[in-house]
Structure prediction request, 126 residues.
Amino acid sequence: MRPRVGAPVTFLEGGRGIDQNGDGIIENNEGINAAASRSIIRDRDGQRQTVADLMQLVRVIEVGVDADGNGVADLDPSRIYYLGQSLGGIYGTTFLAVEPDVHVGALNVAGGLGGSNRYSPIFRVE
Prediction:
């Protein structure tokens, strides 16, 4: 049975987030940032996985997405654009460099490139 318009949709899986510190709560960065003793790499692997996820989303759109269930693809694969704000701008840099089917992108306040966050005392995990 398809949900009616406006009805809530529940996803049983929590995505890539995991309870890294064992407190029973999946917080914002649990699943993107590395846990101790590998915290020096911070979100490097999470960013790489996000780029792979975005590339897979492009492939899904290219084969056709029928959002309203009428049997017709609703998204135009020739008009896939990317807008990245802050962290989205950081991994958007890599995404736009390696994804040939996204021709337009805007990256806004993509700070921290080159690992500067890793070296800042503010961002170090103690």
